[in-house]
Design brief:
It is built from four helices and 18 strands. It is mostly beta strands. The chain has a domain at 154-158 and 170-352. Mean pLDDT is 86; it is low at 7-25.
């Protein structure tokens, strides 16, 4: 039996064992006895309170009770009485007017096993295991320990795996099937993008001015398996990032982002240190919260000094735009939501160009079950895609 099937069967056994206590509501709502819309609008999109809850390491201090933990006579040991667990199930049907397969049943598209909660005072954890993603056992993606209010300050530290674009626009929280493409695009033979990576995040908030500062250090090569030398990074270089965001009143937020890294050329297990690529991202972002309307926009410039690791390189520039408008007719009590999403990538390497306009409608059948109808027009490939699907959490 191959490794992927062994992993899948193991995870399914775990789900069966815990399913009696899992019930039919997501883990955090089950733990604290509040509705999904306390944090989500709708799930997985976060409201302000949900953002604050996540920023506190998935801990609600006012609701932490000693009865929620097993007493072992040790003040330094907090064991959850019931291990928090949840499942996310996504299924879609796609229709398009080009391609070899014009109609595709993606049922399921993905199945996730999620857990998160309190580890100790001001320390939380979160992870999810992608049991099934596009037909494969994908493994761990988000997985980190969160230290909240370190040294009784406004400093938070996260250690583990995360998406480096999370301080900008969180891909995992979007309502649409269509993605935020500038974050996951790799240029040429580069291994660097702004999706998943391993590292450390430092976040600091200045309440008096409404300023948030996020700094990060990452490997810069994604989250591949460890090599034969038991190392996860493919070279000795590390990437660093910085985002500064400023709130203006209650409805406007603006930010600036800079990210830099260097990577060496790989040829199997061999590293050519004298052939490297310097990657830089920089650009502004904006959030407008207008009640029923929420607009989020990102403009990024990516510069690669040598993305194909050749002897006489030319610097390559890639410009990316991602803009999203979400309309909630009845605010957080809406059953219907509309999303208008625009993606545009223009690169000196034309193969990476991408240009789509997306209109997505969401109907909230239940707090933890939503239906999706989506139209994607690909201006680059002159293709039309129609998506019907459902997303559930339980």
């Amino acid at each position: 039996m191959n490794k992927q099937w062994t992993s899948l069967i193991t995870c399914l056994i775990i789900i069966l064992i815990i399913s009696q206590s899992a019930l039919a509501i997501p883990a955090f709502a089950r733990r604290y006895k509040f509705s999904c819309n306390t944090c989500h609008d709708p799930f997985p999109r976060l409201k302000d309170y949900g953002d604050e809850f996540a920023g506190n390491g998935f801990i609600e201090p006012k609701e932490e009770k000693s009865r929620d933990y097993i007493s072992a006579g040790d003040d330094k040991l907090w064991l959850n009485r019931d291990f928090p667990i949840a499942i996310r199930f996504d299924a879609f049907t796609m229709m398009e007017n080009q391609g070899d397969v014009e109609r595709d049943m993606q049922t399921p598209y993905g199945l996730k096993l999620l857990s998160g909660g309190t580890l100790y005072k001001n320390i939380g954890y979160y992870f999810y295991f992608y049991i099934y993603e596009r037909g494969e056992v994908a493994g761990l993606e988000d997985a980190y320990i969160h230290f909240d209010n370190v040294f009784n300050s406004k400093l938070d530290i996260m250690v583990g795996q995360f998406q480096t674009c999370d301080p900008l626009m969180k891909r995992e929280l979007r309502l649409s099937y269509e993605d935020y493409h500038i974050y996951k695009t790799r240029i040429g033979a580069s291994r660097t993008n702004l999706a998943y990576d391993r590292g450390v995040i430092f976040a600091y908030g200045i309440e008096k001015t409404g300023t948030d500062i996020v700094a990060m250090i990452t490997n810069g090569n994604g989250i591949p398996e460890a090599g034969s030398n038991h190392r996860f990074d493919s070279d000795s270089y590390k990437n660093v990032g910085l985002r500064v965001a400023q709130g203006i009143g209650e409805n406007i937020g603006i930010g600036g982002f800079y990210y830099r890294g260097e990577e060496a050329k790989l040829n199997g297990a061999t590293i050519f240190i004298d052939t490297t690529n310097v990657v830089q991202y920089f650009g502004p972002d904006v959030v407008l919260n207008l009640g029923k309307l929420t607009f989020t926009g990102q403009y990024l410039i990516r510069m690669d000094s040598n993305p194909n690791f050749i002897a006489n390189p030319d610097e390559t520039q890639t410009n990316g735009i991602c803009a999203e408008l979400v309309f909630a007719p009845k605010y957080d009590q809406s059953d219907f939501y509309w999303t208008l999403l625009y993606n545009n990538i223009e690169s000196d390497i034309a193969a990476h160009n991408y240009h789509t306009v997306t209109l997505s409608g969401t109907y909230l059948m239940a707090r933890n079950l939503r239906l999706i109808a989506e139209y994607i027009h690909d201006l680059e490939a002159e293709n039309n895609l129609f998506i019907l699907g459902l997303v559930s959490g339980f």
